[in-house]
Amino acid sequence: PLYPPLAKSVVVVESVTKAKVIQQYLGDMYEVLPSYGHVRDLARRSRSVRPEDDFSMVWEVPNGAWTCLKSIKVALKGAENLILASDPDREGEAIAWHIKEMLEQNLACHVTVARVVFHEITEDAIKNALMSPRYIDMDLVNAYLARRSLDYLIGFAISPLLWRKLPGCQSAGRVQSAALSVVCDRETEIEKFSPQEYWTADTEFETQCSDSSKGICLTSWIKHLNSKKLDQLSISSQEEARALEKRIYSCQFEVRGVHRSKIHKNPPMPYITSSLQQDAANKLHFGAGHTMKVAQKLYEGINLSSEQATGLITYLRTDGFHISHGAAEDIRSLVKQRYGEQYASEDIRKYLKKVKNAQEAHEAIRPTSIRRLPSSLIGVLDEDSLKLYTLIWRRTMACQMEASRTELIQVGIGNPEGDMIFHSSASRLDFKGYQAVYEDTEASGSSENPEGETAHQDNFEALSKLEMKDLVSPVNVNLEQHFTKPLSRYSEGALIKKMEELGIGRPSTYASIMRVLQVA
């Protein structure tokens, strides 16, 4: 174990912000230095990867990286341990390996070298990581080397051809070219699209009352005509629509079916990188790159009043849906405290959905302390950071809550012959369940209606009064012309979702691929 300290240690992380926060936690027996990301990369020239020579690789060191390495060499004088604490993913493992390799090549690595990983920047997480050091994982490093060499070979082989054939083209790449193909396929579909005309005939019915009181009005949609189920394009012209309107007004109708059902809607799964980027795009109008920039800031640490700087969320590049047992119990405890026992899930919810090619090495994205409410960070975080933190906090709370319960009522209305059937429905929210967290303005400072859902209470009460064989009369037929629409172009969120479905890219690459495609 490297904690408690028995000798001086040098800790290397990736950013200045992270280094400052961790230095506060560890004290003077540790010197925490930043690497500023990768300290070397493949040389930007031909034959930097040589397949004929067992895929040997030629590296080059950026100018700024020499300064970083010099700082590490100076700090190691008098130290006994070099602790490589870069991010807990493939790129982080590669950075640790590069640093070790370069120090050894410069005969400056005379100390014990250890690798530690943590998934959140909190004092407990850092100290626990130091108590469980390990060696550099060469399987991860070799995976990095394989991907890096493939990126190089594909890019350097195809890009010159593209530049000759398509002047102004940027470059080709193992992931970006696959993503670009998806975008191009959608564009081809849009260009081939031919709109088709169709009509709808929404009909307003009124119940026939035996007394002078006003009947119940309800709007219905025609589902069956001439005993055949209609699809979107079944009524394809104004002539057909007018003929249907005339027929509706000439008929008597009755209630032919009343069906009630209970709908249980489970809470959404906790965030992984792709789903956070999609939700941030759809709800906050953040680009993928901006989402990752803000999330990185929340992960690396924020100076909180009356507290040390601390990381507010767990590691942001993940495809795992699991949440640690301790964190899940704390979430359920807060749910019970804020909303009542009945709102917490009966047991810890475990999410097992697999993303294609997922590694699931890390937890889902969640607050490091669920008890740090978004409202407590108003005035501490900038506007975008607070919005993203609130999004994460709500989703994390929701994932350990009970399902919402809705009662659905569906009414079928038909003519005596039964060859013309209309459908009307309404719902009533009986138990909010996880939706309660989205209405908790005290915790977040704002409310949100998840999924844009509404329970049509008035319509539900009206439909509830209907019984089989009740007579109803059409009072208004609303004919409306429509044209089918082509598929829309991919938004960033939609493209990330499609890439995830196809297994293109990794959590760490989505934002950079969006940036490259937009430049191209």
From TrEMBL:
Pfam families: Topoisom_bac, Toprim. It catalyses: ATP-independent breakage of single-stranded DNA, followed by passage and rejoining. InterPro entries: Topo_IA, Topo_IA_2, Topo_IA_AS, Topo_IA_cen, Topo_IA_cen_sub1, Topo_IA_cen_sub2, Topo_IA_cen_sub3, Topo_IA_core_domain. It comes from the Eukaryota. GO terms for biological process: DNA topological change. GO terms for molecular function: DNA binding; DNA topoisomerase type I (single strand cut, ATP-independent) activity. The keyword Kinase does not apply. Residues 8-121 form the Toprim domain. Keywords: DNA-binding, Isomerase, Topoisomerase. SUPFAM superfamilies: Prokaryotic type I DNA topoisomerase. SMART domains: TOP1Ac (SM00437), TOP1Bc (SM00436), TOPRIM (SM00493). Residues 137-520 form the Topo IA-type catalytic domain. Its EC number is 5.6.2.1. Belongs to the type IA topoisomerase family. This is DNA topoisomerase. It comes from Aegilops tauschii subsp. strangulata (Goatgrass).
